[in-house]
Amino acid sequence: MATSISNCIDKNNEQTLHLISTQFFQMVPVRRIQWGEKSLCLGNIGIEDQQAVLEATVSSTLCNKYPTSLSYRRAFVKYLIQKLEDSDVELCDEIYELYTDLLQETEEEEDSLCYKSYFLPNKEIVNLQESVHIISQGTTGLSTWQAALHLSEWCFEQESLLKNKNVLELGSGLGFLGVALCKQCKLDSFTFSDFHPQVLFLLMKNIEINFLNEQYSLECPTFLENSECKDRKMLKKIKRQLSVSKELVMEDSCEIMQISYNSMVSSTDTMEREVDEQEVGSEQEEDVSNSNDHFLSSNSHWSPLNNSNVYTLNHSDSIRLMKFNWEFCNQKDLCKIQPDVILAADVVYDKSIIPFLVQVLYQFLSGTFGSWPVAYIASTVRNEDTRDHFLVALGNKGLRYEILDPPSEKIFHYDDIIPIEILRVWHPSNKTL
Ligand SMILES: C[S@@+](CC[C@H](N)C(=O)[O-])C[C@H]1O[C@@H](n2cnc3c(N)ncnc32)[C@H](O)[C@@H]1O
Prior knowledge:
- The chain is α/β, with parallel strands linked by helices.
- The protein has two domains: about 15-105; about 115-425, Rossmann fold (3-Layer(aba) Sandwich), CATH 3.40.50.150.
- The chain is built from 17 helices and 13 strands.
- The protein binds S-adenosylmethionine.
- It comes from Magallana gigas (Pacific oyster).
- One of its GO terms (molecular function) is transferase activity.
- InterPro entries: FAM86_N, Methyltransf_16, SAM-dependent_MTases_sf.
Protein backbone atom coordinates (compact mmCIF):
# COMPACT_ATOMS: atom_id res chain seq x y z
CA MET A 1 0.00 0.00 0.00
CA ALA A 2 1.61 3.26 -1.11
CA THR A 3 -0.05 6.65 -1.00
CA SER A 4 2.75 8.93 -2.13
CA ILE A 5 3.84 10.00 -5.55
CA SER A 6 7.27 9.01 -6.65
CA ASN A 7 9.89 11.72 -6.83
CA CYS A 8 11.48 9.69 -9.54
CA ILE A 9 8.63 9.77 -12.00
CA ASP A 10 10.01 11.24 -15.16
CA LYS A 11 9.64 10.63 -18.81
CA ASN A 12 12.35 8.01 -18.75
CA ASN A 13 10.89 6.11 -15.89
CA GLU A 14 8.70 3.95 -18.07
CA GLN A 15 8.11 1.37 -15.39
CA THR A 16 6.66 3.78 -12.90
CA LEU A 17 4.47 5.42 -15.51
CA HIS A 18 3.32 2.00 -16.70
CA LEU A 19 2.46 1.01 -13.14
CA ILE A 20 0.43 4.18 -12.63
CA SER A 21 -1.36 4.04 -15.97
CA THR A 22 -2.27 0.34 -15.73
CA GLN A 23 -3.90 1.03 -12.38
CA PHE A 24 -5.62 4.15 -13.69
CA PHE A 25 -7.11 2.30 -16.67
CA GLN A 26 -8.28 -0.56 -14.46
CA MET A 27 -9.81 2.07 -12.16
CA VAL A 28 -8.01 0.96 -9.01
CA PRO A 29 -9.46 3.14 -6.20
CA VAL A 30 -7.19 6.20 -6.04
CA ARG A 31 -6.27 5.71 -2.43
CA ARG A 32 -5.02 2.23 -3.22
CA ILE A 33 -2.91 3.22 -6.21
CA GLN A 34 0.74 2.31 -5.94
CA TRP A 35 2.89 5.15 -7.18
CA GLY A 36 6.11 3.19 -7.57
CA GLU A 37 8.87 1.75 -5.46
CA LYS A 38 10.86 4.94 -5.05
CA SER A 39 8.01 6.83 -3.43
CA LEU A 40 7.95 9.75 -0.98
CA CYS A 41 9.84 13.03 -1.37
CA LEU A 42 6.73 14.62 -2.80
CA GLY A 43 8.47 17.93 -2.76
CA ASN A 44 10.71 16.80 -5.59
CA ILE A 45 8.17 15.92 -8.23
CA GLY A 46 8.76 18.47 -10.95
CA ILE A 47 6.49 20.00 -13.53
CA GLU A 48 7.67 17.58 -16.24
CA ASP A 49 7.01 14.59 -14.05
CA GLN A 50 3.51 15.82 -13.34
CA GLN A 51 2.88 16.30 -17.05
CA ALA A 52 4.20 12.81 -17.76
CA VAL A 53 1.75 11.32 -15.26
CA LEU A 54 -1.16 13.20 -16.87
CA GLU A 55 -0.07 12.15 -20.35
CA ALA A 56 0.05 8.51 -19.26
CA THR A 57 -3.42 8.69 -17.72
CA VAL A 58 -6.17 11.32 -17.94
CA SER A 59 -4.74 13.23 -20.91
CA SER A 60 -3.73 10.18 -22.94
CA THR A 61 -5.15 9.25 -26.34
CA LEU A 62 -6.31 5.98 -24.82
CA CYS A 63 -8.34 7.79 -22.18
CA ASN A 64 -9.81 10.06 -24.80
CA LYS A 65 -10.90 7.07 -26.85
CA TYR A 66 -11.90 4.73 -24.02
CA PRO A 67 -12.54 6.96 -21.00
CA THR A 68 -12.63 5.66 -17.47
CA SER A 69 -15.62 7.03 -15.56
CA LEU A 70 -15.88 10.78 -15.10
CA SER A 71 -16.05 10.47 -11.34
CA TYR A 72 -12.93 8.32 -11.33
CA ARG A 73 -10.99 10.80 -13.49
CA ARG A 74 -12.07 13.62 -11.20
CA ALA A 75 -11.04 11.68 -8.11
CA PHE A 76 -7.68 10.82 -9.66
CA VAL A 77 -6.78 14.41 -10.56
CA LYS A 78 -8.12 15.76 -7.27
CA TYR A 79 -5.95 13.31 -5.39
CA LEU A 80 -2.87 14.35 -7.37
CA ILE A 81 -3.56 18.03 -6.70
CA GLN A 82 -4.07 17.44 -3.00
CA LYS A 83 -0.90 15.42 -2.62
CA LEU A 84 1.16 17.93 -4.55
CA GLU A 85 -0.29 20.94 -2.74
CA ASP A 86 0.32 19.26 0.61
CA SER A 87 3.97 18.99 -0.28
CA ASP A 88 4.28 22.62 -1.39
CA VAL A 89 5.54 21.94 -4.89
CA GLU A 90 4.79 24.06 -7.91
CA LEU A 91 1.95 22.52 -9.88
CA CYS A 92 1.80 22.49 -13.65
CA ASP A 93 -0.97 24.62 -15.18
CA GLU A 94 -2.38 21.63 -17.04
CA ILE A 95 -3.41 19.90 -13.86
CA TYR A 96 -5.69 22.75 -12.76
CA GLU A 97 -7.05 23.24 -16.29
CA LEU A 98 -7.77 19.55 -16.52
CA TYR A 99 -9.54 19.47 -13.18
CA THR A 100 -11.67 22.49 -14.10
CA ASP A 101 -12.63 20.82 -17.39
CA LEU A 102 -13.54 17.63 -15.58
CA LEU A 103 -15.70 19.52 -13.10
CA GLN A 104 -17.49 21.26 -15.93
CA GLU A 105 -18.26 18.01 -17.70
CA THR A 106 -21.75 16.93 -16.76
CA GLU A 107 -22.28 13.40 -15.67
CA GLU A 108 -25.32 12.14 -17.55
CA GLU A 109 -27.88 10.43 -15.40
CA GLU A 110 -27.31 7.28 -17.38
CA ASP A 111 -23.51 7.38 -17.37
CA SER A 112 -23.37 4.09 -15.60
CA LEU A 113 -21.06 2.44 -18.08
CA CYS A 114 -17.45 3.37 -18.65
CA TYR A 115 -14.37 1.81 -20.19
CA LYS A 116 -11.67 -0.12 -18.43
CA SER A 117 -8.46 -1.05 -20.23
CA TYR A 118 -6.15 -3.93 -19.37
CA PHE A 119 -2.53 -4.04 -20.60
CA LEU A 120 -1.32 -7.42 -21.80
CA PRO A 121 2.28 -8.69 -21.63
CA ASN A 122 2.63 -8.37 -25.42
CA LYS A 123 1.63 -4.67 -25.12
CA GLU A 124 -1.80 -5.22 -26.62
CA ILE A 125 -4.70 -3.69 -24.73
CA VAL A 126 -8.11 -5.12 -23.85
CA ASN A 127 -10.73 -2.36 -23.81
CA LEU A 128 -14.03 -3.21 -22.18
CA GLN A 129 -17.25 -1.42 -21.40
CA GLU A 130 -18.08 -2.11 -17.78
CA SER A 131 -20.36 -0.85 -15.07
CA VAL A 132 -18.97 2.17 -13.20
CA HIS A 133 -20.40 1.25 -9.86
CA ILE A 134 -17.96 -0.24 -7.45
CA ILE A 135 -20.03 -2.15 -4.97
CA SER A 136 -17.37 -3.62 -2.69
CA GLN A 137 -13.63 -4.09 -2.94
CA GLY A 138 -13.49 -3.41 -6.63
CA THR A 139 -16.34 -5.72 -7.56
CA THR A 140 -19.30 -4.35 -9.46
CA GLY A 141 -22.67 -5.58 -10.65
CA LEU A 142 -21.47 -5.95 -14.22
CA SER A 143 -17.74 -6.07 -14.34
CA THR A 144 -14.72 -8.26 -14.89
CA TRP A 145 -14.25 -10.51 -11.88
CA GLN A 146 -10.95 -11.32 -10.23
CA ALA A 147 -11.06 -14.99 -11.25
CA ALA A 148 -11.04 -14.02 -14.94
CA LEU A 149 -7.91 -11.91 -14.48
CA HIS A 150 -6.27 -14.71 -12.49
CA LEU A 151 -7.19 -17.39 -15.05
CA SER A 152 -5.84 -15.26 -17.89
CA GLU A 153 -2.52 -14.91 -16.05
CA TRP A 154 -2.40 -18.68 -15.65
CA CYS A 155 -3.23 -19.25 -19.33
CA PHE A 156 -0.49 -16.84 -20.47
CA GLU A 157 1.99 -19.12 -18.70
CA GLN A 158 0.61 -22.27 -20.41
CA GLU A 159 1.35 -21.41 -24.01
CA SER A 160 1.28 -24.98 -25.32
CA LEU A 161 -2.06 -25.67 -23.68
CA LEU A 162 -3.90 -23.20 -25.87
CA LYS A 163 -1.75 -22.96 -28.97
CA ASN A 164 -3.82 -23.71 -32.11
CA LYS A 165 -6.69 -24.93 -29.93
CA ASN A 166 -10.43 -24.37 -30.15
CA VAL A 167 -11.48 -22.83 -26.87
CA LEU A 168 -14.97 -22.52 -25.42
CA GLU A 169 -15.68 -20.24 -22.48
CA LEU A 170 -18.73 -20.76 -20.29
CA GLY A 171 -20.26 -17.66 -18.67
CA SER A 172 -18.02 -15.15 -20.44
CA GLY A 173 -19.55 -12.09 -18.80
CA LEU A 174 -18.07 -8.98 -20.39
CA GLY A 175 -15.48 -10.99 -22.29
CA PHE A 176 -12.18 -10.12 -20.63
CA LEU A 177 -10.73 -13.64 -20.67
CA GLY A 178 -11.50 -14.39 -24.30
CA VAL A 179 -10.40 -11.01 -25.61
CA ALA A 180 -7.16 -11.23 -23.64
CA LEU A 181 -6.40 -14.77 -24.81
CA CYS A 182 -7.24 -14.02 -28.44
CA LYS A 183 -4.85 -11.06 -28.32
CA GLN A 184 -2.06 -12.74 -26.38
CA CYS A 185 -2.14 -16.40 -27.49
CA LYS A 186 -2.25 -18.16 -30.85
CA LEU A 187 -5.64 -19.84 -30.74
CA ASP A 188 -7.50 -21.53 -33.53
CA SER A 189 -10.85 -20.26 -32.35
CA PHE A 190 -12.47 -18.83 -29.25
CA THR A 191 -16.18 -19.21 -28.52
CA PHE A 192 -17.58 -16.76 -25.98
CA SER A 193 -20.87 -17.79 -24.38
CA ASP A 194 -23.39 -16.43 -21.94
CA PHE A 195 -27.14 -16.51 -21.56
CA HIS A 196 -28.09 -13.20 -20.08
CA PRO A 197 -29.33 -10.70 -22.70
CA GLN A 198 -27.75 -7.61 -21.12
CA VAL A 199 -24.46 -9.41 -20.62
CA LEU A 200 -24.60 -10.85 -24.13
CA PHE A 201 -25.22 -7.41 -25.57
CA LEU A 202 -22.24 -5.82 -23.82
CA LEU A 203 -20.15 -8.89 -24.60
CA MET A 204 -20.96 -8.49 -28.28
CA LYS A 205 -20.06 -4.78 -28.15
CA ASN A 206 -16.83 -5.50 -26.27
CA ILE A 207 -15.78 -8.08 -28.85
CA GLU A 208 -16.52 -5.58 -31.63
CA ILE A 209 -14.54 -2.84 -29.88
CA ASN A 210 -11.50 -5.10 -29.68
CA PHE A 211 -11.62 -6.98 -32.95
CA LEU A 212 -13.28 -4.95 -35.64
CA ASN A 213 -10.96 -3.14 -37.95
CA GLU A 214 -8.99 -0.10 -36.91
CA GLN A 215 -11.17 2.37 -38.76
CA TYR A 216 -14.23 1.11 -36.98
CA SER A 217 -12.54 1.18 -33.62
CA LEU A 218 -11.23 4.69 -34.24
CA GLU A 219 -14.81 5.86 -34.10
CA CYS A 220 -14.95 4.73 -30.50
CA PRO A 221 -16.32 5.65 -28.10
CA THR A 222 -18.96 7.37 -30.16
CA PHE A 223 -19.58 4.47 -32.46
CA LEU A 224 -22.26 3.19 -30.15
CA GLU A 225 -24.20 6.37 -30.67
CA ASN A 226 -23.95 5.77 -34.39
CA SER A 227 -24.94 2.16 -34.17
CA GLU A 228 -28.29 0.76 -34.97
CA CYS A 229 -31.35 2.17 -33.29
CA LYS A 230 -32.17 -1.05 -31.46
CA ASP A 231 -28.62 -1.18 -30.12
CA ARG A 232 -28.88 2.36 -28.81
CA LYS A 233 -32.16 1.61 -27.09
CA MET A 234 -30.70 -1.52 -25.58
CA LEU A 235 -27.66 0.33 -24.31
CA LYS A 236 -29.82 3.07 -22.83
CA LYS A 237 -31.89 0.51 -20.97
CA ILE A 238 -28.78 -1.17 -19.62
CA LYS A 239 -27.41 2.14 -18.38
CA ARG A 240 -30.71 3.02 -16.76
CA GLN A 241 -30.89 -0.38 -15.14
CA LEU A 242 -27.37 0.01 -13.79
CA SER A 243 -28.00 3.49 -12.42
CA VAL A 244 -31.08 2.22 -10.61
CA SER A 245 -29.02 -0.44 -8.88
CA LYS A 246 -26.11 1.87 -8.00
CA GLU A 247 -27.31 2.33 -4.44
CA LEU A 248 -26.55 -1.32 -3.78
CA VAL A 249 -23.73 -1.32 -1.27
CA MET A 250 -22.91 -4.54 0.48
CA GLU A 251 -19.99 -6.04 2.26
CA ASP A 252 -20.56 -9.70 1.54
CA SER A 253 -19.36 -10.34 -1.98
CA CYS A 254 -21.30 -13.60 -2.18
CA GLU A 255 -24.51 -11.76 -1.59
CA ILE A 256 -23.49 -9.14 -4.12
CA MET A 257 -22.94 -11.84 -6.67
CA GLN A 258 -26.41 -13.27 -6.15
CA ILE A 259 -28.16 -9.93 -5.96
CA SER A 260 -26.48 -8.30 -8.91
CA TYR A 261 -27.09 -11.17 -11.28
CA ASN A 262 -30.51 -12.06 -9.95
CA SER A 263 -31.68 -8.46 -10.16
CA MET A 264 -30.34 -8.23 -13.67
CA VAL A 265 -32.07 -11.41 -14.68
CA SER A 266 -35.39 -10.31 -13.22
CA SER A 267 -35.15 -6.92 -14.87
CA THR A 268 -34.18 -8.37 -18.20
CA ASP A 269 -37.52 -9.73 -19.24
CA THR A 270 -39.14 -6.37 -18.67
CA MET A 271 -36.33 -4.60 -20.39
CA GLU A 272 -36.39 -6.86 -23.40
CA ARG A 273 -40.12 -6.59 -23.62
CA GLU A 274 -39.93 -2.81 -23.52
CA VAL A 275 -37.26 -2.71 -26.21
CA ASP A 276 -39.26 -5.10 -28.33
CA GLU A 277 -42.48 -3.18 -27.84
CA GLN A 278 -40.95 0.16 -28.64
CA GLU A 279 -38.70 -0.89 -31.43
CA VAL A 280 -40.22 -3.85 -33.11
CA GLY A 281 -43.78 -3.49 -31.93
CA SER A 282 -45.22 -4.51 -35.25
CA GLU A 283 -42.92 -7.47 -35.75
CA GLN A 284 -44.15 -10.93 -34.95
CA GLU A 285 -42.07 -12.88 -32.45
CA GLU A 286 -40.82 -15.67 -34.67
CA ASP A 287 -39.02 -17.85 -32.21
CA VAL A 288 -39.20 -17.49 -28.45
CA SER A 289 -35.69 -18.85 -28.01
CA ASN A 290 -34.33 -16.09 -30.21
CA SER A 291 -36.39 -13.19 -28.90
CA ASN A 292 -33.65 -12.00 -26.57
CA ASP A 293 -30.79 -11.90 -29.02
CA HIS A 294 -32.38 -9.83 -31.78
CA PHE A 295 -29.38 -7.51 -31.43
CA LEU A 296 -27.14 -10.35 -32.63
CA SER A 297 -29.29 -11.41 -35.53
CA SER A 298 -29.81 -7.84 -36.70
CA ASN A 299 -26.13 -6.87 -36.46
CA SER A 300 -24.35 -6.98 -39.80
CA HIS A 301 -21.02 -7.93 -38.23
CA TRP A 302 -22.36 -11.19 -36.86
CA SER A 303 -23.65 -14.15 -38.85
CA PRO A 304 -25.36 -17.22 -37.43
CA LEU A 305 -23.55 -20.48 -38.04
CA ASN A 306 -26.01 -22.69 -39.96
CA ASN A 307 -29.11 -21.22 -38.37
CA SER A 308 -27.87 -21.83 -34.85
CA ASN A 309 -27.36 -19.68 -31.74
CA VAL A 310 -23.66 -19.59 -32.54
CA TYR A 311 -22.62 -16.35 -34.29
CA THR A 312 -19.32 -15.65 -36.00
CA LEU A 313 -17.69 -12.24 -36.24
CA ASN A 314 -17.28 -10.90 -39.76
CA HIS A 315 -17.61 -14.38 -41.27
CA SER A 316 -14.35 -15.45 -39.67
CA ASP A 317 -14.63 -18.69 -37.80
CA SER A 318 -12.05 -17.73 -35.20
CA ILE A 319 -14.23 -15.54 -32.96
CA ARG A 320 -17.66 -16.83 -32.09
CA LEU A 321 -20.39 -15.85 -29.70
CA MET A 322 -22.95 -18.37 -28.51
CA LYS A 323 -26.14 -17.65 -26.66
CA PHE A 324 -26.06 -20.55 -24.24
CA ASN A 325 -28.01 -21.20 -21.07
CA TRP A 326 -26.67 -24.22 -19.16
CA GLU A 327 -30.22 -25.05 -18.15
CA PHE A 328 -31.30 -25.62 -21.74
CA CYS A 329 -28.65 -27.45 -23.70
CA ASN A 330 -29.25 -27.30 -27.42
CA GLN A 331 -27.39 -30.24 -28.94
CA LYS A 332 -27.51 -28.65 -32.38
CA ASP A 333 -25.56 -25.61 -31.14
CA LEU A 334 -23.15 -27.49 -28.93
CA CYS A 335 -22.12 -29.92 -31.69
CA LYS A 336 -20.85 -26.95 -33.68
CA ILE A 337 -18.21 -25.93 -31.15
CA GLN A 338 -15.94 -29.02 -30.83
CA PRO A 339 -13.71 -27.44 -28.17
CA ASP A 340 -10.28 -28.78 -27.21
CA VAL A 341 -10.29 -26.66 -24.07
CA ILE A 342 -13.14 -25.31 -21.93
CA LEU A 343 -12.54 -22.29 -19.70
CA ALA A 344 -14.75 -20.67 -17.10
CA ALA A 345 -14.13 -17.97 -14.50
CA ASP A 346 -16.27 -17.26 -11.49
CA VAL A 347 -19.18 -19.44 -12.45
CA VAL A 348 -19.33 -21.41 -9.19
CA TYR A 349 -21.11 -18.95 -6.90
CA ASP A 350 -24.65 -20.20 -6.64
CA LYS A 351 -25.54 -23.74 -5.58
CA SER A 352 -28.72 -23.73 -7.62
CA ILE A 353 -26.89 -23.49 -10.95
CA ILE A 354 -24.19 -26.05 -10.11
CA PRO A 355 -26.16 -29.12 -11.34
CA PHE A 356 -26.69 -27.49 -14.75
CA LEU A 357 -23.09 -26.37 -15.02
CA VAL A 358 -21.82 -29.83 -14.07
CA GLN A 359 -24.17 -31.50 -16.55
CA VAL A 360 -22.84 -29.24 -19.34
CA LEU A 361 -19.27 -30.04 -18.33
CA TYR A 362 -20.05 -33.74 -18.20
CA GLN A 363 -21.56 -33.72 -21.67
CA PHE A 364 -18.63 -31.90 -23.23
CA LEU A 365 -15.89 -33.73 -21.31
CA SER A 366 -17.33 -37.19 -22.01
CA GLY A 367 -17.17 -36.70 -25.76
CA THR A 368 -20.93 -36.27 -26.34
CA PHE A 369 -20.40 -33.51 -28.88
CA GLY A 370 -17.55 -35.11 -30.79
CA SER A 371 -14.44 -33.72 -29.06
CA TRP A 372 -12.69 -34.65 -25.78
CA PRO A 373 -11.88 -31.36 -24.11
CA VAL A 374 -10.32 -30.64 -20.74
CA ALA A 375 -11.81 -27.87 -18.59
CA TYR A 376 -10.01 -25.22 -16.52
CA ILE A 377 -12.25 -23.46 -14.05
CA ALA A 378 -11.16 -20.54 -11.87
CA SER A 379 -13.25 -19.70 -8.82
CA THR A 380 -13.01 -17.13 -6.10
CA VAL A 381 -13.72 -19.28 -3.06
CA ARG A 382 -16.09 -16.96 -1.19
CA ASN A 383 -17.93 -19.86 0.37
CA GLU A 384 -16.24 -23.22 0.92
CA ASP A 385 -19.58 -24.94 1.12
CA THR A 386 -20.46 -23.86 -2.43
CA ARG A 387 -17.03 -24.94 -3.66
CA ASP A 388 -17.36 -28.35 -1.96
CA HIS A 389 -20.83 -28.75 -3.40
CA PHE A 390 -19.34 -28.25 -6.87
CA LEU A 391 -16.55 -30.76 -6.26
CA VAL A 392 -18.99 -33.37 -4.99
CA ALA A 393 -21.21 -32.81 -8.04
CA LEU A 394 -18.20 -33.32 -10.35
CA GLY A 395 -17.26 -36.51 -8.48
CA ASN A 396 -20.83 -37.84 -8.65
CA LYS A 397 -20.69 -37.54 -12.42
CA GLY A 398 -17.47 -39.54 -12.50
CA LEU A 399 -15.38 -36.54 -13.54
CA ARG A 400 -11.81 -36.20 -12.28
CA TYR A 401 -10.32 -32.94 -11.05
CA GLU A 402 -7.17 -31.49 -9.54
CA ILE A 403 -6.32 -28.10 -8.06
CA LEU A 404 -3.55 -26.41 -10.05
CA ASP A 405 -0.72 -24.18 -8.93
CA PRO A 406 -1.52 -20.49 -9.28
CA PRO A 407 0.22 -18.41 -11.95
CA SER A 408 3.72 -17.39 -10.91
CA GLU A 409 3.35 -13.78 -12.04
CA LYS A 410 0.62 -11.29 -11.28
CA ILE A 411 0.01 -9.00 -14.25
CA PHE A 412 -3.28 -7.29 -13.48
CA HIS A 413 -4.44 -5.31 -10.47
CA TYR A 414 -7.01 -7.12 -8.34
CA ASP A 415 -7.71 -8.18 -4.79
CA ASP A 416 -6.86 -11.75 -4.06
CA ILE A 417 -7.53 -11.64 -0.35
CA ILE A 418 -10.27 -14.19 -0.95
CA PRO A 419 -8.44 -17.17 -2.47
CA ILE A 420 -8.85 -17.94 -6.15
CA GLU A 421 -8.55 -21.60 -7.15
CA ILE A 422 -7.99 -23.06 -10.60
CA LEU A 423 -9.32 -26.57 -11.21
CA ARG A 424 -8.50 -28.88 -14.06
CA VAL A 425 -11.45 -31.17 -14.82
CA TRP A 426 -11.51 -34.12 -17.22
CA HIS A 427 -13.30 -37.36 -18.00
CA PRO A 428 -11.41 -40.59 -17.15
CA SER A 429 -12.01 -42.00 -20.64
CA ASN A 430 -10.28 -39.04 -22.27
CA LYS A 431 -7.57 -40.73 -24.39
CA THR A 432 -6.09 -37.41 -25.51
CA LEU A 433 -4.45 -36.91 -22.10
C1 LIG B 1 -19.74 -13.87 -11.94
S1 LIG B 1 -20.01 -13.76 -13.60
C2 LIG B 1 -18.43 -14.13 -14.29
C3 LIG B 1 -18.23 -13.46 -15.59
C4 LIG B 1 -16.84 -13.64 -16.19
N1 LIG B 1 -16.53 -15.03 -16.40
C5 LIG B 1 -15.81 -13.00 -15.28
O1 LIG B 1 -15.16 -13.75 -14.51
O2 LIG B 1 -15.64 -11.80 -15.32
C6 LIG B 1 -20.92 -15.27 -13.95
C7 LIG B 1 -21.36 -15.38 -15.41
O3 LIG B 1 -22.03 -16.63 -15.58
C8 LIG B 1 -23.18 -16.40 -16.38
N2 LIG B 1 -24.20 -17.43 -16.06
C9 LIG B 1 -24.84 -17.60 -14.89
N3 LIG B 1 -25.75 -18.58 -14.99
C10 LIG B 1 -25.69 -19.04 -16.27
C11 LIG B 1 -26.39 -20.04 -17.00
N4 LIG B 1 -27.36 -20.74 -16.44
N5 LIG B 1 -26.06 -20.24 -18.29
C12 LIG B 1 -25.07 -19.52 -18.87
N6 LIG B 1 -24.36 -18.54 -18.23
C13 LIG B 1 -24.67 -18.30 -16.95
C14 LIG B 1 -23.64 -15.00 -16.00
O4 LIG B 1 -24.46 -14.40 -17.00
C15 LIG B 1 -22.32 -14.27 -15.82
O5 LIG B 1 -21.88 -13.67 -16.99
